[in-house]
Amino acid sequence: MKRILLILLILMPIVLWTASLLVIAQTVDFRSDSGRFGEAFGVMDALFSGLAVCGVVYTLFLQWQEIKRTVKNQQRLERSAHKAALLTCLSTELSALNTLLSSLYERINGLQKIKSQAERVGADLLAQEQRLTAKRDSVERDVEQLLRQIAQVKAEVYQEAESEQR
Question: What is the mean predicted confidence (pLDDT) over 137-157?
């Protein structure tokens, strides 16, 4: 569309100039009255100056549209850069949280291992306590039995000593 308009803007002055030359050549006898003939082209000069101004205005319009597009693209790029920075920040935070979560899982696994070891040690200690309690009870029974035997032997020794004294 812009190319067609540009081509029309270039061809229009040429066509108008040629058409005005033909019209002027038909209406004015340039051999007899060359002053009038030159003045007829003054109108064409004004026309071409107006067309030149139109060309400048059109060029300014195209530049304005290009500046608008550039500003829009710049804003879009700034938004994209902001989003990319935000995504990078969020990704970094996510990575840090993931690392923290992994560390917590490792600590929990370590604590679970310690707990299971403690449970095993506790079970071993409980079994050992039961065994020691059973041995203590057995030793206490043996001591009681020995004390009874000692008391019995003592009683026998006293009886013998009394019977010898008599």
Answer: 88
Name residue 72's amino acid: K
Residue 128, burial from CB neighbour count under 10 angstroms (0-12, 13-18, 19+): exposed
User: Is the pTM higher than 0.70?
Assistant: no
User: How is 58-110 classified by DSSP, letter by letter?
Assistant: HHHHHHHHHHHHHHHHHHHHHHHHHHHHHHHHHHHHHHHHHHHHHHHHHHHHH
Axis-axis angle for helices 34-165, 2-27 (nearest 10): 170
Q: Which residue has the tokens 């059973």?
A: 134
Across the chain, mean pLDDT equals 84
Cα–Cα distance for residue pair 163/149, rounded to 1 Å: 21
Residue ranges of domains in the chain: 2-165
Residue carrying structure tokens 């035997």: 149
The proportion of the chain whose per-residue pLDDT surpasses 90, expressed as a percent, equals: 34
Report pLDDT for 27.
72
